[in-house]
Design goal:
Blueprint: E1 2-5, E2 17-21, E3 32-37, E4 47-50, E5 53-63, E6 71-77, E7 85-91, E8 95-102, H1 104-107, H2 115-126, E9 129-137, H3 141-155, E10 159-163, H4 174-181, E11 184-185, H5 187-198, E12 211-214, E13 217-222, H6 226-247
Length: 258
């Protein structure tokens, strides 16, 4: 159970974003509500509700500057907020998705990102989603490592998917960045993506896409072209739900016992 005091929030209607945390440590002037209680269950996509009314959805997390260990959250307002403190319960409907497009030209505004939104569209059509967030960054190893770590361990996204940077070019850094931060590889995902690519073109044998787990998140690299993204993602989608569920502690049998 959590308690949130909305008395400091003025003018934040549905669609607005507010900060949740210890109001003493957040920037002055921000829309901030004091949050207390057991916050261990907060992840991207988690809904905070009171009396059956969905009030907030967690969008992302952050560490509060100057206060070691003090974590805060950005939340989207879903309904009109109460005027004072209320007890809140947590609810999570569906899976949370973060997709990251690596493209020097895209990050510079010189190319439209089509592959990233395609990932979100395909996942939404295949799985129930609580939230989907997209990022467009340059092909920089350290930037991708930092973002992947944040998405998994701070925001707590269930699915983290990258597109671009899986080849052998000097700026293709997705595999190295991913390998540096994941806990365990998922070689079955990698082999499935390679096999799918090879059924279309021999050039797929140079792809170095990596898949693995990081905390309670599943991380998968995909190629950069929308066509290759569609083909590769279609291959692994059937295994995504089962993988996330097992990673996060589902104890049901993997196969029916006859």
């Amino acid at each position: 159970m959590l308690n949130c005091d909305f008395s400091t929030i003025k003018g934040a209607g549905p669609g607005s974003r507010i900060m949740l945390g210890n109001s003493r440590f957040l920037s002055q002037g921000c829309l901030c509500a004091a949050l207390s209680g057991n916050v261990s269950g907060l992840r991207a996509g988690t809904v905070l509700q009171s009396g059956g009314t969905k009030l907030l959805r967690i969008v992302s997390g952050l560490w509060t500057s100057g206060v070691p260990g003090a974590k805060s959250w950005t939340a989207e307002v879903l309904s009109e907020l109460p005027d004072g403190p209320v007890d809140l319960t947590l609810k999570k409907d569906g899976y949370s998705l973060a997709y990251v497009t690596l493209s020097d030209k895209g990050a510079a505004g010189e190319r439209e990102d089509q592959a990233g939104p395609l990932i979100a569209e395909m996942i939404k059509n295949a799985l129930p989603l609580s939230i989907a967030q997209g990022y467009l960054i340059a092909d920089e190893t350290d930037d991708l490592k930092a973002l992947l770590m944040h998405l998994a361990h701070v925001d707590g996204f269930d699915l983290i998917m990258t597109t671009g940077g899986t080849g052998v070019g000097p700026r293709d850094v997705s595999p190295e960045a991913t390998l540096a931060v994941i806990d365990n590889r998922l070689p079955g995902f990698e082999r499935a993506i390679t096999a799918t690519g090879l059924s279309k073109t021999p050039h797929a044998m140079i792809s170095r896409a990596v898949a693995g787990t990081m905390g309670e998140s599943v991380v998968v690299n995909f190629p950069g072209s929308p066509k290759a993204v569609r083909e590769s993602l279609e291959t692994v989608i059937p295994a995504l739900k089962h993988t996330v569920d097992k990673l996060q502690g589902d104890k049901t049998d993997c196969a029916q016992v006859l």
